[in-house]
Every structure is written in structure tokens, then in C-alpha cells.
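Chapter summary example: a protein plus beta-D-glucopyranose.
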Amino acid sequence: MKKFLFALTALAMVACSTAPQMSKEEKEAFKFADKLIKKMTLQEKIGQLQQFVTGKGVVTGPDGEKRNIEEAIRQGTVGSFLNIYSTEEYIHLQKIAVEESRLGIPLIFGFDIIHGCRIQFPENLASSCSWDIEGIEHSARIAAEESAAMGIHWTFSPMCDVSADPRWGRVSEGSGEDPYLGAKIAAAMVRGYQGDDLSSDKTVAACVKHFAAYGVPQAGRDYHTVDMSELMFRNRYLPPYKAAIEAGAVTAMSSFNDFMGVPASGNKWLMHTLLREELGFTGFVVSDYAAVHEMIKHGTAADGKDAAYQSMNAHLNMDMVRGDYIAFGEELVKEGKVSEKTINMLCREVLAVKYRLGLFDDPFKYGRQNQDEVVYRPENLEFAREVAAKSMVLLTNNGVLPLNEGVKIALVGPLADSKRDQMGAWIGYGEAERSVTIREALEKRYGKSNVLYAKGSDFRAPIKGGIAEAVRAARKADVVLLSIGLSYKESGEATSLTEITVPEAQQELLDALKKTGKKIVVLLGTGRAMDIRNEVEKADAVLVTWHGGTMEGPAVADLVSGDKNPSGHLTMSFPYCVGQVPVHYNMKVTGRPRKSPTQKSKYISRYMYTPNEPLFPFGYGLSYSEFEYSDLQVLTPEVELGGVVKVSVKVANKGKYDGDDVAQLYVRDVVAETTRPMRELKGFERFSLKAGEEKVLTFEIPTSDLAYCHSDMSFKADAGEFKVWVGADSNAQLEGVFTLK
Ligand code: BGC
């Protein structure tokens, strides 16, 4: 019988209230802000809480009123702008703020640097499949350097929304279905963006978004309602936000959705109780785009004034876009609905971040660099190529890959030569003309005459003669590389889908090519997990290339040629069909679990005609080599709370190719206080082995990582037995047991 560790040990306490001590620079920043606030009028203070888009010098207020933004800057009634595409404009507006407003308070410029600035890395879901935390941090660092050179101070990234719903297009911006991996990636991105010195002209402020639980909209429809228990939220969704905050992110963004019935932008529990009081966040929160005003549509605010009243009192610092703060803030204070103390608090948090960015010291340090020296550095492009290759996931291969030298290739499909689509959604400062396509890279690798290109089809419609041309190319070739999937417009915000199969026009193309009898390699371009039963059945190999960014083409050439060995592993399960969604490895057990995938009894938790399991589980990914896992040893069969669980496993490369693999460790709390996931990822290691080599990996899991939120919301680990598995995906079979004392 299991005992629960009810005594809140020091360790468990640490886990639930991590409020860090304020650093010296934070204190200094607040001291500066407090001094400045004393000189500010009420309107100037509220101005710092207002963010606008510029729209060629004019913005429209909630009442349709047009504002002259330059005049607004002079008056101090705006403190920030977002998504400006021109360095000159940044400098021009900053000059007005610094030289022509009464107190010369600099503006802060935010921008969506989601997966790169000029150089686009693969979409975030893709790069999470590299499980390469250092690589992801370095990508964020490159993005920060390029952004700062453009004049950007602040990126609206990382997106920390855990999601297991591929109907929701924004899964492309996140790190998949797992909170543990998601937390490691979120923290790495914050470190990458912010570095050790926020005031450097090579770093930008990060933004933890979308707070909170934006990744779980009902039925996968973007902006839809979110409803879940606090227990579920804390255990599955909170970890990446928390990790990003602990890594020092200085801003956060409230989400569009409601949470426990209250829209996030007016949700005091989220933004004050949890974020500030519990997690110790000291930065500022910006609303998502017009999300303050949207509380009217949510049906929880009567009008813009009511919305501003709720958001200000909920501890939301900055109103993105609609202008309710600046329109109604003063009135609300005069009527006693929002205290000036609250305004001071909201304002000082904004000013402190501006101070920490070094903007008071030198408001023009961002955007002054020689951009030509900073952007598109050759070594960074090479790095983007590596990240893209590490992100791609080989799902099936009957031996057709890698291709033989001297092979003649028919390259077909709407993604094979589309500079824009391969970059994916949200490319900000990205420039499609800089993308190197699969076609260009293969022509370089194999010679132009050995690559017969035919587009074959558009994404959702046939093209006249397209199939016939593709078939002609296939007949002349040894192998068909078929680059199909979803366009960049079917990825990211507002791209929810109820069908997650490859669109019909492209399936017809596949069918026609299949009839030629040639070997077919499907290169699946997508920003989400998909139902690819059809492609798996018909193709000789399936490589998920995602939307791989600027350097996708060379990365694909590296992999199909065998110059590099695939090593990506899925971070989001590929469902068997959309009806299973959400399907993820860390689902909870039930009182009537299915004992095996083939068990047929009636009154158990299963579908009548469909498997419970996804087609490809979380963690899955093949290599040209064969990695064998054996000899799992639990080195610490009994561990005291506060100690470290140690598990070793032997890994061997039994194949002909050198390669990398990702060893994953999963645990299960056998008898817990609440229902728990079947398995939870608690450790992983990306390792390299030459053909024929082997080595022993040792995982060290601090027992604090076994803690979870209990029914009384306390965060602690349970004493008793835990199962542990290690392997190359979430179905890992090597098993051990340890006991937490
Ligand atoms: C998105 C945010 C983004 C913001 C600013 C919104 O529509 O949800 O993720 O940061 O726009 O562009």
C-alpha cells in the first residue's frame, strides 16, 4: 500500500512556490522606475500601458477614432508598438519619443520573432523534434541578434502552450504534447533570446505566451473556449510557462481564451495570484491582440471601459492594439474604479523592463548595428541547415533511403520548389527569396540533369496536365521524391482543420505516381501532426520534413543522400485518424483500460473499429542505423525524497551508419493519490554513436521531478513504487522499478 508524502518537505515546498529572489538589476530597475513615476502625469503613466500598431502613422481607436501616432508619442499616450517592419521607422518613432515627448521615455518595440528573424529556422514543432536543447537555445540566440539589429527590442516568443490537438494550427508554434520537454525548450528559448545581459544590443526580451492554456481550445478550433480542472492545468499545461518564467522571461502575454470561465485578459487569478504571487514573475504582461476589448464579445465586459477596468485590476499591464487603456484609464481612476496605486504598479513594471533593456541608457542601440554583418551569417545559415536536418523525422523506410549515388530522381509536389511554403507560418522578417528549396539543393547535390522536377499539383486543386507531367518524370527516373502536405497558410494562427489528411488533389498525384511502379519517398511538409495512413501504405519511405525554414532544401538533400542520418523524434503523436484526437502518450489510465492493442472485450475503454493507439507515438523516429537498447539497470532501487534516481542503459549502434538517437526515460507512479498519466517523460539524451559502437547512458532524475499537483493543489511526490522505461520512443519496453521512500 502506497503512502503519500504529506509532510511538505523543504523540497516539495520549493516545487510549489518557486518565487525567486529579485536580482540586483531588477531592484535597480524598479528603483529607477519608481523615481521616474513620481514625475509622470496620470495620462503619461497610462500611456506606458498602451501598445499600438502603426498602420502608416494612423491607428484606429475602439470608437473608430483615428489617431495620429506621432502626436500620440509626443503626448506620451503610447508606450509601445508592435510588428513594425522597418528599421528606419523604429528610429524615427524613437526619436520622437525621446526628443519630443515631455519626459523622453523611450518606446519599446515588440515583434513576432517566432522561429527566426531573417534566417528562418524550422517551425517550432519541427525543431522540438530535434530534442536538441542547446541547438534550440542557439537558434533563439541567432534570432535575437538578427532582431536586435533590425531595431526590435522584444519578441513575442516562446509560445509555451502544450497541445495534443493537431486540428489546432498553432501547434506549429509550440513544442508538442509533453510538458517536461516543453519546459526544457521554453527555458532554452528564453536563455537564447535574453542571454546573460538583457541590455546588450545582441539580446531581446522574451515573452511567455499565451498565458494560459491557449493550446486546448474546445474541438481544436482557434480562439474557442478552454475548460479544464486546475489539477490538469497545473500538471500538464503550467510547466513550460513556469520554466520560461524561472529562466527569467521579462514579459508574458495573456491568451485569447477564457480560463475557468474568465477571459485570460481579465483573469486576476492567472495574472496576479498565479503569475506574480506564486511564480514570482516581476515583469509585465501584454494582452494578446485586442484581447482586452474582446472581453465584450466574450460576454464578460459591457464595453471598452469595463474591459479596461477588469484588465487593469487583474494586473494586466499593457493593452495591445485596441486602445481601451488610453481611452478610459484616466476616467476609471477619476471614478475610483482603478486606483492610481494600481496604475503605478502596472507602469513601474513596464518601465523596469525598458530600463533593463538599456533603453534609458541608449534608446537607439537596437537597429544601429551594421545589419549586413549580423544577418544571414554563413555560419548561421549552416546552423539552420543542421537544425532542419535534426528536426526531420523518418517514419517509415523499406530500404529505399538513403538514395544510391548516381540515382535519377523525379522530384514532384507543391512543396518541392516553394520558397515561401517551406518557411512556414509567422516569418516576420523572413525573406522567401533567401530560401533554398529541395529542388535547388537536390540539383546541386545530384546534378541538374539527374533531377526531373514537376510540380504535379497545387495544395488543394489539381493543375492542368500536372499529373501527366509528373508521371512522365517518374517514368524516366529511378525514384520519386514526392514533397506533399500542407501550405504555409495552413499552419499557425486561425488555421484550424477538421480533416488532417493530405489534401485530395495531392493524394491523387500519389496514386498516379504509384501506378508507375517506381519507388516513392514521401517528404511530408506540415506544421502539425497528420493522419497519414494513406501515404504510409503507399510510399516506400515517409520522411517528415515539416516547414523546415530557409535551409530546408539542403537539409533534405543531406538526409535523402545519406550525407546525414535522420535523428528527429516526434514530439507530437501522429494520430491514426482525426476521431482519436486528442491522442497523446501521456493520457491517463482509466478504470477499464485495454490490456493490449488487440483486446476485443466489450466493456473496456476502446473504439469499436479503430485502434486506441496513434499511428506513430510521441518520441518515435527512425534512423538509417539500428540503435539497440539493452541492460536497463536501476542503480538506486530505493531513493529517499530529495535524492536522485539513477538508471543506466546500454545503447549500441548495430547498423552500418554513424548516427544520433534520442534515448528517452519514462516513469509511472504506480499507486498515486490522483489518477496519473500512463507514462511521463522524465529524462532524455541525444547521443551519437559510430556504426558498431556502444556505450552506457546514465540518467539522473531528481526526486523533485516526480512531484505532481495533488487533489488539494499541493505539489509533492508520492512514496512508493515507480516503474521506469528507457527506449527510443514512448512505447519503450525496457522496464525497471524503484521505490521512493
Ligand atoms: C497572436 C500572438 C501574437 C500577436 C501579435 C496575435 O494574433 O495570437 O501570438 O504575438 O498577435 O502579433
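Key point: DSSP finds 21 helices and 28 strands in the chain.
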